[in-house]
Design a protein that fits this description.
The complex is a heterodimer of chains A (50) and B (1043). With 50 residues, chain A is mostly beta strands. Helices cover 0% and strands 60% of the residues of chain A. Chain A is built from no helices and four strands. Chain A has a four-stranded antiparallel beta sheet with strand order 1-2-3-4, with no helix packed on it. Helix content of chain B is 45%, strand content 14%. In chain B, strands 1, 2, 3, 4, 5, 6, 7 and 8 form an eight-stranded mixed beta sheet that branches. In chain B, strand 21 and strand 22 form a beta hairpin. In chain B, helix 9 packs across helix 17 and helix 22 packs parallel to helix 34. Classes of the chains: A mainly beta (50), B alpha/beta (1043). Chains A and B meet through strand 1 of A and helix 8 and helix 9 of B.
Chain lengths: 50, 1043
C-alpha cells in the first residue's frame, strides 16, 4: 500500500439493526485502488480497480 | 509547536435543537459535553436562530466553557442558497447577525440575498460553510474559477475575518475534500479553520437526528437522500478525534484564535426600561411621583393617608434605585389608553401588590387594604424584571396591540416567543413520519393516547406502551419509535410560537437583542422567550386577552341597551344574593369558580367576602393541592380542627390562611422571616419551590434553609425540617395573593351580573365563551336560569348573542354565525342587507338579495333560521334547487325551483339531531338524553334530577351525556367526568382501577350509564362510579377535556 486515499463510516439501516461499516480506500503499489470495509471483526473487499 | 497549542480547543459550528429538526441537543447538553471533553470555547450556530444564545451563556458560566454566539445563514448566490457560518465578535456583530437573520426570515424563501450579507459585516466573522456550503458544492461542480472570484470578493467584504471551513465527519470524500480545500485556501492566501459539524452531543443521538431529518425533509428512513446523515460522526468529537480527522495544525490553531477573537459577554447586568411619554421639562422620576401623589390624595383620606404615603415613599425609593420609573409610566400609558377607549383592562399578578400600580390605575385592588406584599413584585435586590400583567378584554386586545406598535414604533416593540417543547402526540407524529408510519396510523396512535398519556414528555413514552400496543401490536416499528422517543431531551424545542401576551418594549431597535420574525398570524416575534428577554435586560409587559373581561364588557353593553343603565363594574355593591349563589355551588358561568372542583369547594368554603373568594380561587391550584393545603384549610375554616403552625414564628404569616401555605407570598415571607434569607434569595427560592421536578433541584437548599431557621427564629432542627418539607411540598403553580385578589374582583362581577342581569350575562358568555363549558351545556343551564333561548332566525339574528324582550321577559337570540359554516362576515352581510332593505320574505328572497354560497345557506336552513318563514324541509329543498338553477344574488325571470314534492314534517328527534349537527346545541326545550329516555327507563337508570335527592352513600344507577373529562396529575389516578341530563349535572368520580379497566370506554363514550354511590347531593351532585356501561348517543357532544 502506498497511501490511504479516503476513509469513511456508514452506519447502515439502524432501524433494521444493521451494524456499522468502516471503509478504507487504499492506493496500492502499482497504482491499483482497493476499497475495503470492516463489519464487526471481519474485513471485506468491496471493489478493486487498476 | 507544542502538541497542546495544536489541539482543537474550540467548536465553531454547533447546532442545537433550535435548528428545528437539524439538531437534537439543548445548548446546555452541548456545553456540558464540550466541558467533559476539555473544550474551552463553543459556538452555537443554529440555522437562522439565536434562540439558544441565553441558555448557552448561562450554561457556559456553569461549566466554564466560553460561549460564542453566531448563526448559520443560508445565503442566496445566483440560483441556490448556501449555508455560511457567521460568528459575532461583539455586541455590534451580534446585532448585525440579528439583522441578517431578520432579513432572511422576512423572505418567503427564508434565505439571505448575497448583497444583504455584504451590507452587514461589522464585527462578524464568516466561515465558508460546511458540507452543503458553497465551497464544497462548487468544487464538486467544478466551478473553481467562480469559486475563487467569490472568495476574493468575500475576503474584501470581511477583511481578516473570512475563514475557509474544514470539516470531516467520516463521510465518503471528506478526507480527500479536506486536503483539496486546504490547498485551495493556500492558493488564495485564505486561512483555514477546523470546524467539524456538530449536530448532536453523543453518537447514540444519531438515530434521532436521522429520523428528525427525515421528518423535516418529508421523507421516510427507507428513502435515501443526500441531505441525510450517513453515520454517527456528527456527534461532538473529542479533540483527539477531531485532530485525527483534520490533522492540520494551522486549522486547529486558527479555530482557537477565531474563538478568542469572537468571545464577548452577551448578558447585561441591568434592566433597560422603554422610553415613556413625558411632559416637557420633567424627568421620569418626577413625573411618576407627581402622578402618584395626586392620586394618593384622591384615594386615601384620614388615618389611611399616612400609611399609604409611607408605603408609596418606600416603593418609589425602590423604583428609583432600579431606574424603573419609565417602566411604570409606560404600563400606565397602556391602561390609560384602554380607559380612554372604553376597553376593560386590569392589572393582575404580583403588580397588584404595588400601591404605585394602584395609584397609576394599572391595578384595581388596594394593596394596603388587602395587606399585599410589595416585595413579591419588586425589591432593590431584584435582578429579574418586575411582572406587570395587564388583562385586557380579549375582544379588543388586537386593538390595544396595534396601538402599542404605533405608539412605541415598529422596531422597538415585539412579542416574546413561547418555545414549544415536544409532548408525546407531536413527537410521535414527527418521528412516526420519519419512520414511514402512514398518517392514519399516526392519528390512531395519537387518539389512543387519550388523556392518560397525551401530556407525557416523549422520553416517558414507555409509560404509554399500552396505547402503542393497541395500535401497532407487536410490529418492530413500535419498538423503534419508543426507542427514539426515549432519546429525546425533556426540553426539546419543536418550534416557536407567540407568547399569549408578553410584549417587549425597548429603548433601541430590538435587533440589538434578537432577530425579528412574523408568526403565521402576522405577530412580530422575538426569538427570545420571556426568561431570555429578561436575561438580556429587556422588560416585558404582559398584555393578556381575558375572555371574561370581554364577557363583562359585553354584558355591560347589553345592560345599557336593554335597561339604559351604565354599570361601574369596578365598584359594584356588596350583595348577599351574590354570596348565596356562590355558597350554593351554583357557579356556572362565574369567573374562576365554575369547574366541578371549584363548585364543590364553593359549598364547603361558603365565601362571604372578597377575601374568602380570593382564597377560594387560590386554593384549587397545583401548589396548594400538592402541599396538602386544601383539606386542612377548609376544615380549620369550618372549625372542624384546630389551627396549628409548623412553628410559632409563622403565625403572623399564615394566620390569615389558618396556618397553611396558600400563596406565593407566604413562601417568600417564610424564606425571609423564618429562614433569614434576603428578598433576592427568597425570590430565587420561591421560584425553585414552584418549579422543582427532581429532588436534586430543591434538596441543595435544605440545609441552608434549616440553618437559617435555627439561627433566625431559634427553631429546633426538627421544626426547621418540618417547615422546609412543608414549603417544599408547595410544588407547581400557586397564585400570588395579589393575583387572587385581582381575579376575585372579576369573579364577583360575573356573579353579580348573573344575579341581576341573567339574560344579558348569558348572551355575553355565549358570545365570548370565557369559561370551560360548551355552548350546549350553557344552553341547558339557561333553562335553570329561566332565560328562554329563542330560535335562529334570519330576520332577527346577527353576529353576537343578543337579548330581546319576549312575552314580558328577556330572552336570548343566537347569532347566525353560531351555525357551523356561517362566517361572521356572512352573518354581518345578512344583517346589513336586512337593515337596508327590510326583512326577508322567504328563502328565495334572501337567495336573490345576497351572494350566499349553498353550504352556509343550507346550514342556516338546517339550524332553523327560516322556520318562521317556511317549513324547514321545504326551505332545504328550495335551497338545493335554487343553487342548481340560479346564481345567488341575482333575480330570475323564471322560477328556478320545480314544484315541491310532498315532504314529511321534521320530527323532534330529527330536529334535535340537525341542531347538533349544525349548531352543537339545540334551541328546543329538551335535552339530547330525552331521545333515549325510554331506554334509560328500561335499564332502570334514574335521571340526575332524581339522583340528587337521594341521601349520601345511597347506591344509584344513573346516566348522562359526558360533557367534561378531567384526570389531573394531582389526583392520584382518579378521573372526574361531568354527566349532564337537562339542566342537571353530576360529577362522576372514577377510581384508578375502574379507569384502567374501562380505559377505552371512558375515552370514547358520549353517554355513560353508571352504577354509583352518591357522595354529595344538592346542586353539586357527586357520584362515585363502580360499574360503567356505554349507550350509543343520538348526538355528538364536544365537551371540555383537561389533564
Amino acid at each position: 500500500m502506498t497511501r490511504v486515499l479516503d476513509r469513511w463510516r456508514y452506519d447502515g439501516r439502524w432501524w433494521e439493526c444493521e451494524v456499522h461499516r468502516d471503509y478504507l480506500l487504499l492506493e496500492l503499489r502499482g497504482g491499483a485502488v482497493v476499497e475495503l470495509f470492516r463489519e464487526g471483526d471481519a474485513w471485506w473487499v468491496a471493489r478493486v480497480s487498476d | 509547536m507544542g502538541g497542546s497549542s495544536q489541539r482543537l480547543n474550540a467548536l465553531l459550528d454547533v447546532h442545537s435543537y433550535y435548528s428545528l429538526g437539524a439538531g437534537t441537543a439543548s445548548p446546555t447538553t452541548l456545553v456540558r459535553r464540550a466541558a467533559e471533553l476539555g473544550y474551552r470555547w463553543l459556538a452555537l450556530t443554529d440555522d437562522l436562530s439565536i434562540s439558544g444564545a441565553v441558555e448557552l451563556f448561562q450554561a457556559g458560566r456553569e461549566h466554564n466553557v466560553k460561549p460564542l454566539v453566531g448563526a448559520t445563514l443560508p445565503v442566496r448566490i445566483e440560483d441556490a442558497a448556501y449555508p455560511f457560518v457567521a460568528l459575532a465578535t461583539s455586541r455590534a456583530g451580534y446585532a448585525a447577525i440579528n439583522r441578517l437573520i431578520s432579513a432572511a426570515l422576512e423572505r418567503p424563501e427564508k434565505d439571505l440575498p448575497y448583497p444583504v450579507l455584504l451590507a452587514h459585516t461589522q464585527d462578524v466573522l464568516l466561515l465558508t460553510g460546511p458540507r452543503d456550503g458553497v465551497v464544497a458544492r462548487w468544487l464538486a461542480a467544478r466551478r473553481v474559477n467562480e469559486l475563487e472570484r467569490l472568495l476574493r470578493e468575500l475576503r474584501g467584504a470581511f477583511p481578516e475575518r473570512l475563514y475557509l471551513q474544514l470539516f470531516h465527519d467520516r463521510q465518503r470524500w471528506d478526507e480527500r475534500r479536506a486536503r483539496v480545500l486546504r490547498r485551495l485556501a493556500q492558493s488564495l492566501g485564505l486561512p483555514v479553520v477546523a470546524a467539524p459539524e456538530v449536530r448532536y452531543a453523543l453518537p447514540e443521538d444519531y438515530r434521532l437526528f436521522d429520523a428528525l431529518t427525515c421528518a423535516r425533509l418529508g421523507r421516510s428512513v427507507q428513502e435515501p437522500d443526500p441531505r441525510r446523515p450517513q453515520n454517527a460522526c456528527q456527534a461532538l468529537p473529542s479533540p483527539a478525534e477531531a485532530q485525527d480527522r483534520l490533522p492540520f495544525p494551522e486549522a486547529a490553531l486558527n479555530a482557537n484564535w477565531v474563538a478568542e477573537r469572537a468571545f464577548f459577554e452577551l448578558l447585561p447586568e441591568r434592566l433597560v426600561p422603554p422610553r415613556a411619554c413625558l411632559p416637557r421639562g420633567t424627568t421620569p422620576e418626577r413625573h411618576l411621583e407627581e402622578r402618584c401623589y395626586a392620586a394618593l390624595i384622591e384615594r386615601y383620606q384620614g388615618d389611611a393617608l399616612a400609611g399609604a404615603r409611607a408605603r408609596l415613599e418606600e416603593e418609589l425609593g425602590v423604583v428609583r434605585a432600579l431606574s424603573l420609573a419609565e417602566f411604570f409610566l409606560v404600563a400606565a400609558e397602556v391602561t390609560d389608553h384602554c380607559r380612554r377607549h372604553g376597553i376593560l383592562a386590569a392589572g393582575r399578578g404580583s403588580a397588584a401588590a404595588s400601591i404605585t400600580c394602584y395609584l397609576l390605575g394599572i391595578t384595581q385592588a388596594d394593596p394596603l387594604k388587602h395587606d399585599l406584599l410589595f416585595e413579591r413584585f419588586l425589591h432593590t435586590g431584584k435582578a429579574s424584571m418586575p411582572d406587570v400583567d395587564i388583562d385586557i378584554s380579549s375582544a379588543r386586545r388586537d386593538e390595544v396591540l396595534a396601538w402599542v406598535e404605533e405608539r412605541f414604533g415598529a422596531t422597538t416593540e415585539a412579542m416574546v416567543c413561547n418555545k414549544i417543547t415536544y409532548k408525546l402526540p407531536l413527537a410521535l407524529q414527527d418521528l412516526g413520519r420519519g419512520l414511514g408510519l402512514p398518517p392514519e396510523l399516526r392519528n390512531r396512535l395519537t387518539r389512543a393516547l387519550g388523556r392518560d398519556f397525551r401530556g407525557l414528555r416523549p422520553r416517558d413514552a414507555r409509560k404509554a406502551e399500552v396505547a402503542f400496543r393497541e395500535v401497532l401490536g407487536e410490529a418492530p416499528v413500535g419498538e423503534a419509535l419508543l426507542a427514539l422517543l426515549g432519546g429525546m431531551e425533556r426540553t426539546h424545542v419543536r418550534h416557536l410560537a407567540p407568547h399569549n401576551g408578553g410584549v417587549v418594549l425597548a429603548r433601541e431597535p430590538l435587533t440589538h437583542y434578537s432577530p425579528l420574525d412574523r408568526s403565521t398570524g402576522g405577530i412580530k416575534l422575538l426569538q427570545l422567550d420571556k426568561d431570555d428577554a429578561e436575561a438580556m435586560g429587556l422588560i416585558k409587559l404582559d398584555l393578556l386577552g381575558l375572555r371574561m373581561l370581554a364577557a363583562l364588557e359585553r354584558a355591560r353593553e347589553e345592560v345599557l341597551r336593554m335597561e339604559g343603565a351604565w354599570l361601574d363594574l369596578a365598584d359594584l355593591p356588596d350583595d348577599e344574593r351574590v354570596w348565596n349563589l356562590i355558597c350554593e355551588g351554583d357557579t356556572m358561568g362565574l369567573f374562576q369558580v365554575e369547574s366541578p372542583s371549584q363548585t364543590h369547594t364553593s359549598r364547603v368554603m361558603a365565601a362571604r367576602t372578597l377575601k374568602d373568594l380570593a382564597h377560594q380561587i387560590a386554593l384549587i391550584r397545583p401548589g396548594p393541592i400538592q402541599s396538602g393545603t386544601v383539606h386542612p384549610y377548609l376544615r380549620r375554616r369550618r372549625g372542624l380542627e384546630p389551627v396549628t403552625y409548623w412553628h410559632p414564628s409563622l403565625e403572623p404569616i399564615l394566620a390569615k390562611s389558618y396556618g397553611v401555605l396558600l400563596f406565593q407570598e407566604d413562601v417568600l415571607r417564610i424564606a425571609v422571616h423564618f429562614a433569614g434569607m434576603s428578598w433576592t434569595d427568597a425570590d430565587r427560592f420561591r421560584k425553585k419551590v414552584s418549579g422543582w421536578r427532581d429532588l436534586e433541584d430543591i434538596e441543595p437548599d435544605r440545609e441552608r434553609f434549616i440553618q437559617g431557621g435555627m439561627r433566625t427564629v431559634g427553631a429546633t432542627r426538627a421544626e426547621a425540617e418540618a417547615v422546609f418539607d412543608g414549603v417544599k411540598a408547595y410544588q407547581g403553580y400557586g397564585f400570588a395573593e395579589s393575583h387572587a385578589w385581582a381575579f376575585a374582583i372579576h369573579a364577583y362581577a360575573s356573579a353579580w351580573l348573573r344575579i341581576h342581569y341573567p339574560a344579558e350575562f348569558l348572551a355575553a358568555i355565549m358570545t365570548e365563551e370565557p369559561g370551560m363549558w360548551s355552548a350546549s351545556t350553557k344552553r341547558q343551564e339557561a333553562r335553570a336560569w329561566g332565560v328562554p333561548m329563542l330560535p335562529f332566525d334570519v330576520n332577527a339574528g346577527g353576529v353576537h348573542y343578543r337579548c330581546e324582550h319576549r312575552k314580558g321577559r328577556k330572552a336570548v337570540r343566537p347569532p347566525l354565525c353560531a351555525v357551523t359554516g356561517v362566517s361572521q362576515d356572512a352573518a354581518r352581510a345578512i344583517l346589513l342587507d336586512r337593515l337596508r332593505f327590510g326583512p326577508f320574505r322567504n328563502l328565495d328572497d334572501l337567495y336573490q338579495r345576497l351572494t350566499l354560497e349553498r353550504e352556509p345557506l343550507e346550514a342556516l336552513v338546517r339550524a332553523g333560521a327560516f322556520d318562521a318563514l317556511q317549513p324547514r324541509r321545504e326551505a332545504l329543498y328550495r335551497a338545493g334547487a335554487l343553487s342548481h338553477g340560479q346564481a345567488p344574488g341575482q333575480r330570475a325571470l323564471f322560477a328556478a325551483v320545480p314544484e315541491l314534492p310532498e315532504l314529511p314534517p321534521l320530527s323532534t328527534a330529527e330536529r334535535m339531531v340537525w341542531d347538533y349537527q349544525t349548531v352543537r346545541f339545540s334551541t328546543l326545550e329538551m335535552h339530547p338524553l330525552d331521545l333515549v329516555r325510554d331506554q334509560l327507563r328500561e335499564l332502570r337508570a334514574v335521571p340526575l334530577a332524581q339522583a340528587r335527592r337521594l341521601p349520601r352513600k345511597a347506591r344509584v344507577r344513573s346516566a348522562g351525556l359526558v360533557v367534561g373529562r378531567q384526570r389531573p396529575g394531582t389526583a392520584k389516578g382518579f378521573a372526574f367526568f361531568v354527566l349532564e341530563d337537562g339542566a342537571d349535572r353530576a360529577q362522576l368520580i372514577i377510581p384508578p382501577d375502574l379507569w384502567d379497566e374501562q380505559r377505552q370506554l371512558l375515552r370514547d363514550a358520549s353517554v355513560l350509564i353508571a352504577d354509583a354511590t352518591v357522595e354529595d347531593t344538592g346542586h353539586q351532585l357527586m357520584l362515585k362510579a363502580h360499574v360503567l356501561y356505554p349507550l350509543p348517543s343520538p348526538v355528538h357532544i364536544q365537551g371540555y377535556h383537561y389533564g
